[in-house]
Specification:
about 140 residues; alpha+beta; 3 helices; about 25% strand
Length: about 140
């Protein structure tokens, strides 16, 4: 394990191929991590959906399905939080000016709900590097 900053310890870091089938790799890692850390059932679904959505966005929108690129997934605990950082090799995006997926104009669109889901399922969502990196935090994730 390596120190990421003064209070966080790295649990794992994986490189994910830019292919939609890679989501099964992410799901398996989340399942294993949640079991090893005794993540509460009330948090498990939020973690699974938010993180897979972030990776999906990185593959499709960030890396534009370019199989020569990878998505990096780091995850660690910090105090009472479980933190995931998802980073793609794309150009980023304007995460502050996204259409509202609950607006009646957008309700029937097939895309555009990923960031909305992440923001509603994670306790904290932070974009960095012009949107190429997103950090999802889940507080009080265990059964204590």
């Amino acid at each position: 394990m390596k120190t990421l900053n003064n209070t966080a310890m790295s649990i794992d870091s994986i490189k994910i191929p830019t292919h939609i089938s890679s989501l099964s790799i992410v799901e398996k890692h989340i399942d294993s991590l949640c079991q090893n850390l005794s993540v509460a059932e009330r948090c498990y679904g939020n973690v699974l959906i938010a993180v897979t959505e972030a990776v999906n966005n990185a593959i499709i929108h960030g890396n534009k399905n370019d199989e020569s690129k990878e998505v990096t997934l780091n995850y660690y605990t910090e105090k009472k939080s479980l933190v995931f950082q998802i980073k793609d090799e794309g150009n980023g995006f304007d995460y502050e000016n996204l259409p509202d997926p609950t607006d009646p104009v957008n309700i029937e669109k097939l895309h555009g709900r990923g960031v909305f889901l992440m923001k509603n399922l994670a306790d904290d969502v932070a974009f960095e590097e012009n949107g190429k990196s997103v950090t999802l935090s889940f507080h009080n994730f265990d059964n204590d």
